[in-house]
Amino acid sequence: MCPHDQPQHSGCPMHATGATEAIVHEEKAQLDFSRAMSYGDYLQLDAILNAQKPLSPDHNEMLFIIQHQTSELWMKLMLHELRAAVNCVANDQLPAAFKMLARVSRIMEQLVHAWDVLATMTPPEYSAIRPYLAQSSGFQSYQYRCIEFALGNKNAAMLKPHAHRPDLLAMVQAAYEAPSLYDESLRLLARRGLSVPASHVERDWTQPYEASDAVEAAWLQVYRQPEQHWDLYQLGEELTDLEDAFRLWRFRHLTTVERVIGFKRGTGGTSGVGYLRKMLDVVLFPEIWKLRTDL
Questions:
Q1: Domains in the chain and their CATH numbers?
Q2: Tens digit of each residue's pLDDT (9 = 90 or more) over 147-201
Q3: Any alpha helices (H) in 161-266, and if so which ranges?
Q4: What pLDDT, on the 0 to 100 scale, is given for residue 11?
């Protein structure tokens, strides 16, 4: 018996251990997985947790690897939701699309906060691992490129980093050639009888989107009569939320890079901070933002 096994000494480690074991047994928790699928089996944790292979002897490289691997996992989910949302908008299934787009915005919030963790890496710590990265860079992320293409930021040059992998190139090419979320949104407005010009309903989807006064006029009609066009009005606000979150993600990326490497060139060959600043000026859904001034 525990020598301190009295009510006033219930904090005794041995007493606490016994109480915890009793709770587990009382709950009839599954403990034997010799013939059953476990949590680790279901999540393929052996593969995931053994995918971190630091190349340098530096302690901080593990942070750098896990930061980017987890970001890629979130982007995988984002693409899963974005593709389904685009399909829902194309098929007039807006309630389902709204749920998916809201989830995409929340995923972007997770990615914004992920930069807070990477920002704990100081310039000397990054300098210790940078030579081991060679020319690898987030600039080459095929999932990020598919996200940008799905959101309408089309750029043929961004197909080239994937030319060495036909499987990845096919995936990025498909996103490049498909209508974006905004393209499908404008097609929906046209199906609802709003005056969207033909040039924005059927066009070469690989070309960068060009803002249109006529498209803004269609959105203005929605925003001036929200009760009459409630689901389209809600779609406009979902698009606003999405681009707002995307801007924050890009901005946090910029500030983290500037904090860690200053104005050095990126490992992928870009100017680094200079390139990221230019990307901040890209507007995905221009008429959605401009109409706020003109309302």
A1: 63-135+181-262+269-294 (1.20.58.480)
A2: 999 999 999 999 999 999 999 999 999 999 999 999 999 999 999 999 999 999 9
A3: 166-177, 181-191, 213-224, 230-261
A4: 56
Distance, in Å, from the CA atom of 268 to the CA atom of 130, rounded to the nearest integer, reads 12
With left for phi above 0 and alpha for psi between -120 and 50, is residue 99 left, alpha or beta? alpha
- Work out whether the CA dihedral 286, 241, 184, 78 comes out positive or negative: positive
Write the pLDDT tens digit of every residue in 237-287.
999 999 999 999 999 989 998 888 887 767 776 767 887 888 888 899 999
Q: Please return the burial class of 22, using the count of CB atoms within 10 Å of its CB with bins 0-12, 13-18 and 19+.
A: exposed
- Expressed in angstroms, the distance from the first to the final Cα of the chain is 78
Distance between CA 67 and CA 101 in Å, rounded? 24
Say which residue the tokens 């901005």 belong to. 251
Q: Which of 228, 231, 237, 185 is nearest to 209 (CA)?
A: 185
pLDDT band at 3 (very low <50, low <70, confident <90, very high): very low
Which residue, chain included where needed, has tokens 């009510």? 7
Dihedral sign of CA atoms 221, 225, 230, 235 in order: positive
Which two tokens mark 177?
């050639």
Cβ(151)–Cβ(245) under 8 Å?
no
Distance (Å, rounded) from C-alpha 68 to C-alpha 56? Answer: 16
Residue 221 structure tokens = 């009609």
CB 64 within 8 A of CB 121: yes
Round the average pLDDT of the chain to a whole number and report it. 91
